[in-house]
Fold these 2 entries.
Entry 1:
Amino acid sequence: MKRIPMLINGEWVGDDRHEWMPVFNPSNGKKIAEIVKGNERHVDDAVSAAQRAFESDEWQKVKPFERGQLLVNLANYIRENADQWSEWECADVGKPISQARADVEAAARYFEFYGGAADKVMGDSIPIEDGILNVTVLEPLGVTAHIIPWNYPLQIISRSVAAAIATGNAVIVKSAEDTPMTAHAIAEWFVASGLPKGIFQHVTGLGSEVGGPLASHPDIAHVTFTGSVNTGISVMKAAADNVVPVTLELGGKSPNIVFADASEEKALEGVVKAIIQNAGQTCSAGSRLLVEASYKEEFLSKLKEKFSKLTIGPGSEDNDIGPILNKRQYDQIMSRIEEAKSIGKIVTGGKSVTIEGSEGGFYIEPTIIDELSHSCSLAQEEIFGPVLSVFTFNDVEDAIQLANGTDYGLVAGVWTQNIDVAHYVASKMKSGQVFINNYGAAGGIQMPFGGYKKSGIGREKGFIALRNYTQIKNIAVKFGI
Ligand code: NAD
């Protein structure tokens, strides 16, 4: 059992004088670690240390390409220790080990990508008139806060921290209560890297006691928050009091739109993977299947067959579907399934599963729900489990209306062989990413990711995200002899 201290001002904070919170392995319910129950004072200490570190000559003199090299070194370190990091992520989140491995590789890619970008963040020269040189300079913001959810902790920390450090900021990570392991591993690496203390810090504890004070701290220059819509709203309100920008990555209710001319096997695989990845505990999960009415019966019966072959079990055994994070999440999903039984029809699944030897874990069969009204809350709200709801459409406009018919707009999948239909539908989607004849494009570190509507504000991933962590200064020089 590991005791995970916080990293504040280069020191490990956490001893017998602190309160500790347990961390469990979702696969079997066993306690695997403890984190410090931090508080507002810890946040204050971290923010002052970050400010000092940010202003220090030691950090200001680090050249952009050197910041880049540092991040690439971290990427290499993660790859060299990929087995260990995958085991931590698998134990922390419960996800199948192959998915944890993919997350570890994605984390390495983020540090590598933004490491490579660090010395390519450039301003413009803007023509004004003869005798004036006008340039823009992109400067770091200062101290940036990164509030992390439990479902993809390593990937989500890596994508925003890498971009923020590449652009010269000092970062404070607040990891989720349930999944601190890889944040701590990154903290350990930063300590060993010899960077000025305070450039990377890690605080832990409850959202209300640590996340809240961090988001509302007057000396934070930017908040990147990934999590639920309600918490996102409160983070945004807190930041608004300080006139501080936020990047919000919130939830989704993403559709997979399957036309009758879709390449069937690819569409089936895409639809299955989109909902079972990380047991459906994925913001971009394809949780709504919209299928052309004439094709529904055939597609659904083949989908049901695919669902029946999925394996369920502990993350370390690399089944198709791992456990649900904890009892609270499990109860929430099961209550939505119960509700579905009374207002719709369970096509397959719908029950909890007990795994011999892993009785302490919470497992749920992959579930398909049919015959729901699209306006009901089950069809509109995130369930955050391996639960797919099915709806039909009669024509392209009908499909577009259904696809856009929720408060979310994170991702949409379109499955058709008709290039005109594919592009037309993509152009009409109110969502941050559209995938045609695939779902996810292998993760895509380079592809901007973020939401329309209540799925969020701003974009992460890709070059565009570097702008989140910089501000523009315009300098006009008048010259002449
Ligand atoms: P959550 O909102 O409960 O918690 C997210 C983080 O915020 C945690 O670290 C938590 O401690 C902290 N927090 C809680 N209350 C806070 C407060 N008042 N102020 C500041 N911080 C606070 O979300 P969760 O349950 O951890 O994650 C699930 C949700 O996240 C889902 O809705 C999912 O769709 C979304 N999500 C979105 C993305 C994305 O990139 N769009 C990725 C992963 C998860």
Entry 2:
Amino acid sequence: MPAITFDADTRTWLLTTPSTSYALRLEASNVLRHVHWGARLTLEQVVSLDGRPQPTERGFETVFEGSEELAVDGGLRYGVPSLQVRFADGVRAVEWEYLDHQIVVRPDGETLTIRMADRHYPLRIFLHYRVFTDSDVLDRWTTLAHEAGGSGDAAGSGPITLLRTDSATWALPRREDYRLRHAIGQWGAETQLVGGGVQVGETVFTSRRGVTSHHANPWVMVDAGDAGEEHGEVWGTALAWSGTWRVTVQRTAAGLVSVTSGFGHDGISWRLAEGESLDTPVCSGLYAADGFGGASRRWHDYVRNHVLPHGDEDRPIIYNSWEATGFDVNESNQKQLAALAASVGVELFVMDDGWFGARSSDHAGLGDWTVNTDRFPGDLEPLIEEVHRLGMRFGLWVEPEMVNPDSDLYRAHPDWVLHFPNRQRSEKRNQLVLNLARDDVADWAQDWLNRLVSKHEIDFIKWDMNRPFSEAGWPEHAQDQDLLWRRYVDNLYSIIDRLRADHPNLRIESCSGGGGRIDLGILARTDQVWTSDNTDALDRLRIQDGFSQIYPAAVMAAWVTDSPNYLTGREIPLRYRFHVAMAGVMAIGGNLTEWSAADLAEAAEHVAAYKQVRHTVQHGTQYRLRGPKDDGLTAVQYNSPDDAEVAVFAWVQSAHFGHAPAAVRLLGLRPEARYRDEDTGAVHHGAVLLQHGLPLDLPDGDYASSLTRLTEIH
Ligand code: DGJ
């Protein structure tokens, strides 16, 4: 059955995914009305909805709000506009009419494009829908083109100002009630899961910082007030963009809920000159009938199969030098760390900040990307050769978008940073933001990155970005300075894309002071993200829980660091720290030169154990058995792609006498199968694990943790 079908009589489109349907209809009034987003319906069933009573205009009420496919600003519409334009003569309303539609069949699915045009002005609006044969996630985006097309064609009338250009409006079906779930945070406390009722009015999440931000992540989930981790209907949207953005959840007084999502923050505008067009980023949407866990699992599959460049690869076990040596990196201390890292089984050694220019602190040198030969007298080769000799790959930290005012680069090019005339240049971490929107700056970054990776045998880069924008001006582009908010990200993406194309074996980690740049846009061109600068294992459980709502463990870098933790001062046993990191892309970031022989031996055991479960964790199915709500038990299960291998992580912060946690009931097992515990040899019946849970082997005392590895017996 084709994924996209069309009923010409009622002008209804039906998009079909493996277990969901999405339908929309073009009404006689040229309104593109949302019809259905939920469980599978046939085209005939969807068309039958046409007879249903529609809201009627009464009093001050209008019929559009909360039910359109793209809520334009115009006519009797008073809700959140997804598309808001101002034509050269000052007219602001959009009046659109249908032109035609096109369905394109791809090897992995189908794409529908509905073409609309303004009735008078030369603005064309294309709504795109991409469905996949193997995913319930559907992608939407919008193209705006300044070209003739409307029946009252008024071409040549000057640039069109785009005041709001969202990728999509997502109208939800009518339910009794709604709840919202999303992730907020701050530096060191990213992806904190929060939720609550959807109030009548508008709930806005946004970034005005130039990056995706630590403070909100551009996804939301909405349920009908009754979903749980493993049951109930959940709708979600996620935006693929790494600059500023806005997501607005609107609930009308009449009870309709819709979500509009797009790039750019309020207050900026873009111009569309004649002949120009703009593609918004993709905003993806998902309906899942099996709760938040079911929704997350579908997002994870979608990210691995349709977003990541190498979603099928196992991510290596990394050692990163940052928490061990800070800015004080040199050939000798890095070789020492590399030897210890290799001895415990690390596969990729990453030297962090401090290897270039006058970068001995965060006060100077950023922008001067030449190796510091006081620290590395023979250039980087002796270290890289040693790392390779030890059997590891080599990675390097870079921060291409930034400059310290105390640098040769800034002294030579003070005009290269974001700035306005007559305004101060606010520093943060003693640095300014290079205006990557400028092609000369982007070319410069492309050039030195390419030379760096070509000259040395670099297998991996950690691409960092350590401050938000401020005074975001582009004086050389005075007529249209807001363009930088978009062009900056376009150039960032194209630098990374070209670097990857020129160096196909290079792998990249996205970092922005921890988790400031985590989104589906950056994941389409990187391999993993640095989740947070907070490496405290207890705090990480909450960060990882929020992260896992949309993003898979395969991209969630997690270091085991020293105790007490540098940020929280908390002391946590090594075993617990390892078990937390093993639930993602495990890495080590502690100062191994200060670890005891017993610590190193224990580390080697955990690294070996991780190698056993890595494929299951990174590519399998995740079940959040118990979230990190209190100081009691948190548990996460991963099943291998064929469900034959199972890894269960359990962590207890504090045990309270007389209040033992209830057994952890596993999910996703075959009741009739039996499972062997790979460490103890114990054999469990699948049905018993499902009904009565897994007996946990937790040590006494606070910060107890366990990893149980089960294999199905045939
Ligand atoms: C911020 C990153 O999140 C850290 O891991 C480290 O790379 C520092 N920057 C280096 O300056």
